[in-house]
């Protein structure tokens, strides 16, 4: 795999700093039942990195001490971590809102037969990756049969009330472009998703998030192999909008990896760019218990233009409505 950090480290991206912490994003490990072309984590079935129960305990200790009321659980497929359910139930007891970054097909995996019911019983918000509403496009990006498996998962969730009008169970879908391009306008694409999935499969959902592909890990390496890396970076830089800087997710989010190391965002985690704390090369979540990071500088590199290009991009979708 081609390393992309050397191509990104030299940057003129504007300096930014942290606001009050609102969301703790926790990566439970890189094991996944899928291997997607656009994956910025390089996750897959053969990855062995998984958060231990002891580190899950540190996450819960931080939640209790900080009063942060949102935990965003991701992977890989986070549900494959044996401590996933303990983290969810304990975070809910602490009063935190839990978001699960679900790839949908994990709901059909052996041993996960009751996963959908567990998520519903704990009022977990599901943020589900479905990079297109067309079968051919999804299978090309994520593997043959993934679209059909995703529809099966969506129907199971709908049957439990997820994504239904008036239901408190939120089901958000996530779109990624097929290649080296920016996502289309989020509102119009959401309507296209609703029309196609509703008419053809009877599937409902709460909202759609559009995310730009990051030039790192598996997707970044693919760009390098195809000779498209520099042209994609030129697209991101030329599409930069200053007004998006104030809303980038790293200003109110902390990212924790499977070992308990802390980063400004999930993308910095994958590049190995640690939280910018003076005098420390690597920061653990235990070091931050009881510490206020508001005003702390955010570590930036050229990939940050992926969050400010066009309508903007974050774990919560577009930063601007177009």
Could you please describe the fold and organization of this structure?
The longest helix is centred in the middle third of the chain and has 16 residues, at 186-201. The protein is built from 11 helices and 8 strands. It is 32% helix and 11% strand. The mean pLDDT is 92. The chain has one domain (5-308): Alpha-Beta Barrel (TIM Barrel), CATH 3.20.20.70. It has an 8-stranded mixed beta sheet. The chain is globular. The protein has helices at 5-8, 53-66, 84-93, 115-121, 135-142, 146-159, 186-201, 217-225, 229-238, 266-271, 305-308; strands spanning 23-27, 70-74, 97-102, 125-129, 171-175, 207-210, 253-256, 262-263. The chain has 322 residues and is of the alpha/beta class.
Keywords for this structure?
single chain; 322 residues; alpha/beta; TIM Barrel; eight-stranded mixed beta sheet
Topology:
Elements: H1 5-8, E1 23-27, H2 53-66, E2 70-74, H3 84-93, E3 97-102, H4 115-121, E4 125-129, H5 135-142, H6 146-159, E5 171-175, H7 186-201, E6 207-210, H8 217-225, H9 229-238, E7 253-256, E8 262-263, H10 266-271, H11 305-308
Parallel strand pairs: 1-2, 1-7, 2-3, 3-4, 4-5, 5-6
Antiparallel strand pairs: 7-8
């Amino acid at each position: 795999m081609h390393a992309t950090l050397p191509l990104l480290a030299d940057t003129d991206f504007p300096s930014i700093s942290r606001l009050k912490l609102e969301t703790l994003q926790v990566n439970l490990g890189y094991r996944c039942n899928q291997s997607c072309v656009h994956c910025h984590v390089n996750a897959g079935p053969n990855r062995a990195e998984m958060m231990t129960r002891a580190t899950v305990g540190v996450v819960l200790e931080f939640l209790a001490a900080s009063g942060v009321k949102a935990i965003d659980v991701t992977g890989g497929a986070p549900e494959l971590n044996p401590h996933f359910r303990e983290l969810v139930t304990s975070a809910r007891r602490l009063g935190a809102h839990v978001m699960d970054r679900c790839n949908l097909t994990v709901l059909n995996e052996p041993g996960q037969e009751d996963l959908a019911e567990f998520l519903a019983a704990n009022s977990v918000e599901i943020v589900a990756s479905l990079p297109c509403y067309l079968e051919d496009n999804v299978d090309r990006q994520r593997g043959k049969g993934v679209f059909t498996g995703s529809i099966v998962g969506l129907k199971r969730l709908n049957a439990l009330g997820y994504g239904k009008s008036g239901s408190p169970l939120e089901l958000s879908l996530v779109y990624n472009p097929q290649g080296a391009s920016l996502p289309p306008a989020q509102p119009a694409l959401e309507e296209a998703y609703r029309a196609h999935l509703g008419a053809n499969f009877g599937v409902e959902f709460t909202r759609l998030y559009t995310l730009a592909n990051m030039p790192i890990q598996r997707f970044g390496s693919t760009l390098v192999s195809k000779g498209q890396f520099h042209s994609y970076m030129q697209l991101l830089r030329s599409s930069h909008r200053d007004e998006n800087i104030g809303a980038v997710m790293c200003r109110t989010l902390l990212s924790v990896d499977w070992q308990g190391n802390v980063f400004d965002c999930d993308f910095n985690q994958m590049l190995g760019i640690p939280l910018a704390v003076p005098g420390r090369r690597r920061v653990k979540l235990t070091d931050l218990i009881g510490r206020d990071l508001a005003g702390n500088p955010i570590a930036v590199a050229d990939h940050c233009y992926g969050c400010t290009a066009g309508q903007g991009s974050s774990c919560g979708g577009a930063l601007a409505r177009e």
